[in-house]
Amino acid sequence: MIPLALEGAARGDKILPSLLKLRRVGNKPIHFIGRAVSGDWEPIVHGGVYTELQAGVQLATRTTALNELEYSELVTRLRAVADEIGAEPAVPDMIEVMSETRTLHKFVAGHDAQLGVNLKSNGPPWPMATLIGALEKVGFDVRPDGRFAMPDGAGGVLFTLSTNVNMGAENTDRLTLLLDVPCVAPSRDGFGAMVKCAKELVGRLDATVVDDFEQPLLDASLEEIAGQVKEFYEEMEASDIPAGSTRALRLFS
Length: 253
Prior knowledge:
By secondary structure, the chain is of the alpha+beta class.
């Protein structure tokens, strides 16, 4: 976060037009928050009055990290915005920011975990029409990209399912349930819920739970994986980036 000291209290409707000029650098989103007269930090809104501001840029994602050129662009554009609204930014040293960025990107790369459980038909391929009905019965929603998503009950996704065929295909003999581990809070037990769902589909579809090499995935193996997931969550918690938190969702978007 980059602090911006204001010359005096500023109204949201006065400063928002300037702040909205700086939405991102490269593909990194930029957000502004302000300290309201109540003392709380909150997003800048029309009608609000703020005594201090902070600008934040996302340092890393799954695919990329903020680089020197992007940071230089951010500083230049932020100073221009600050001049417009009567603020003075306290810009961090580039060397420190780049060091933090590399550390964060390394963390993301080391915790970018997705776990899959496959279902293989024990007989002929499943007709897609029949399959869709079975998946909807166990709670899946159909997404525009043809994937199925299991809602988490709070507006998010617990895990997804792929039919492993292109849209328009008439049948498939293999399904893949996929858990985006860092994006699901431990309290939701995404892996346990995914395994439970897979076992329910085994009965409905006459299928076998298999790994990526078509070998049966036995309960002992699933329990071992569950233990690894627990350790993974503990590592994320210890790094102050709990799985499923707002920060984790931004980093692993």
